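Backbones bend. We report:
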Amino acid sequence: MSQKLTRFYFIGIIFILFAIAIVYRLIQIQTDPFFTTLSDTVGNQASVKVKTYEPVRGNIYDRWGNLLAGNTEVYEIGVNLNQVKEDDKADLVSFLSSTTGVDRELVSERVNIPYEPNSESPNFAVFSTIFKNAPKEMIEEIEMAQEENSHLRSVSWTGRLKRTYPEGSMGINYLGFYSSDGFYGVEGFYNNILSTTSTQTSISMNPYDVMAIPEIPEGAGIILTIDREIQNRVEEIMDRVIKENGASSGTAIVYDPETGEILAMTSTPRADPNLSTGSILDQYPVESVDGYDVQTPFNRAVMQTYEPGSVFKVFTMAAALDSGTVTPDTEFVDTGVEEYGGLTIYNWDYGAWGVQTMTGCMQHSLNVCMVWLVKQMGTETFYNYLSAFNLDRKTNVDLDNEVSYPLLSPNNPTPFGSDPLLTRWTDSMTATQAFGQGVAVTPIRMIASIAALANDGRMMAPHIQKAIIQDGRIRYYNPKIVSTPIKPETAHTITDMLAISLEGESSTALVEGYRVSGKTGTAEIPTSQGYTTGLTNASFVGWGPSSDPKFIVYIWLEKPTSSIWASLVTAPVFSEIVENIVILMNIPPDNQREQIASN
C-alpha cells in the first residue's frame, strides 16, 4: 500500500512540476521581447498578405481623341510542375502546343523541367512558363478543356497589362514604345508622367474581415498635337514615293508655324510594335558606315542630322534682307564662279546666269549668289543670324533622344577639341554653309527654324504634347516663342519671294487654288572619302497659304535613285501632301478666303 501511495505522490509531483514549467514558459513567451516579435511576425504572415499593384500606364491620344497607345489584358500561361503526372505529360504537351502555337519540342522541354520539392537549391522550378501575352480567347479555350480533362488542371495563368498600339506601325517613330520602360519618342520622353511607382497593400487573409478594394495607381494620359488623319495620309504618300524613287529612306513633318504643333511626323523604317516576339529594335537594320556598324535611327526626324543643301539658302537670304544688305530687287551679275577663303564656288549646273535679282537667285538656286551675299553682309552678321535661328542648338522638342551637330563657325571653330586632325572651321567653310553644305541639322531643327519665315518672324517651340490628363483634369500646353530672328516685314518679303520663285519656274510643288512658298534642296553626301556625286539628299520645305500660313511641310528623301534633283523627287511630294492637308484642315482656296475677308 505504501509503495502505491509513494508512486502516486511521485507521479503527482511530476505533473505539478510539468504544469509549473508550462506556466513559466507561457509567462516567458508573453514577456520576452524575442518571443513577442516572433509572435507578431508569425501572426501577420498567417493573417496578412502583402500584394504589389503595378501602375496602369496612361493612354496616348491624338488631338481628336483617337487612341494611339493603350493597354490590354494579356496572360502568361504555364504549368505547375508539382501537379504534373508522368502519365499525363504526352497529352499535356500536345494540348499546349496546339493551343498556343509554341513548338512541340520546346513545350516538352519546359514541361519536363525536373521538379525537386525537397531540394536545398533556391533555383528549383515550380512553375514553367509556356506562352506569354496570351489573349483572353486562349484562356477561355483552356478553361473549357480543363472542365473535360482533369489531367490539364496543372495548366494555370496570370494576367497582366500589356502596352498596345491600335494603329500598328502608324506613328511609331514619334510614339516610341514601351516594354519594361519607355523608349524613344513620347513613351520615352514622358515615361515618368505616363507611369507611376508601384504600390503595396496589406490584405487580410481572414474571410470575415471586410476590406475596401485598394485603388490601383494610374499614370497620366497624354493628348498629342498629332492629327491621325494627316499622319496616316502622309505615311501612305511617303511609303509610295520612297518606293517609286528608289530612296533608302524618307522623312516628312507637317507643322503649325503659328503654335509649333507637330501635326504629323514620319520616317522610315516603321516597326510593328505589337509583335509578340523579339525586340522592336531588331526591325531596324544595321548598315556599315565607313567601316562601322550603325543601326538605323528610330526616328530620323529628331535622331539624325544631315546636310540639307539649298533649303538652307532661306536663312542666308533672310539674313541679307533683314540686315538691310539687299532688297528683293537688288541685282547681282552671276558669272558662274565666286572665290571665298581660298575656295572656288560654282553653281549647281556649273552655269552662269548673268544679271539676276535676289528673287531670281532663289528661283534658280544659285550657289554663287549666296556666297556673294555673305561677302556683302560680312561673316559676323551671317553667323549672328544663324545663331538667332537657333541653328547651333537643339530644338528641345518633347521627343526622346534628339540629337544635334555643332555649327562650325568663328565662334565655335573646334567643337570636338583642339586636335588638328578633327573637323575645324575655316574661312572656306562659310562659303559652303551659305548654300547648306558643311552644316548638319535634323529635320525638326530645320522646320522649327524655317517656320519663323511663315510666322511673322517668330520662331515657336516645337512640341507634340497638346494636353495632359491627370486626376480628372486637363492641363493644356501653352505655345512658346523661343526667338524672333527676323522682323515681320522680312518674313513677309521672303515668303513672297519664294512664292514668286515657284510660280516663275512652274514648279511641280504648286497647288491648284492655293499660293504656296517653298524651296528645294539637293545636297551631296559627305563620306570619309569626300562628297559623293551620284547620290544626294533631296529636300523640300514649303508653307501656305502664303498670305496667311497655316502649315509648313518638310520633306527629306535619302539617296533617291530615280533622280538626284529635289525639284523632280520632293517638290511633287509637297504638292500631293498639301492637296490632302487643305482638305483635312478645312482650309478654303485663296479666292474663297479673299471673298470671305472682303465681306
